[in-house]
Structure formats: C-alpha cells, structure tokens
Write a sequence for this structure.
C-alpha cells in the first residue's frame, strides 16, 4: 500500500492506494491496519483507494 496523504515522519496516513496488479481477473483479500483496529477487504485487480476511518483511526503504512 502506498500513502497518498501522509503526515510527516509518521507511519500513519489519511489515505492510501493499494495496487493489485495481476494477469488474472481474480480478487484478493487484503489485511488493513488502522490505529485502533484492523480489517480485511476483498479487492479487484487495479487500484483501490483506502481511507482513514473515524471509528478505527488512520491507516498504518508499512514499507517505503
């Protein structure tokens, strides 16, 4: 997942994009970490926008 709107030197973001690039048209289940909880979501190939949720917090970003 790539942060689109990231707070300076913070692992948290308001929004991000998950890139699911594949040759097949098969959806995948992704695990999304937020500040106070986590959730799972099925996404189709392509780009999926993810957002912070007031009930469970900002997105936690991993990697570069």
């Amino acid at each position: 997942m790539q942060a689109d709107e990231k707070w300076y030197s913070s692992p948290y973001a308001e929004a991000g994009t998950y890139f699911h690039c594949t040759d097949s048209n098969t959806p995948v289940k992704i695990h999304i970490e937020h500040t106070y909880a986590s959730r799972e979501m099925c996404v189709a190939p392509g780009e999926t926008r993810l957002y912070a949720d007031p009930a469970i917090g900002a997105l936690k970003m991993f990697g570069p």
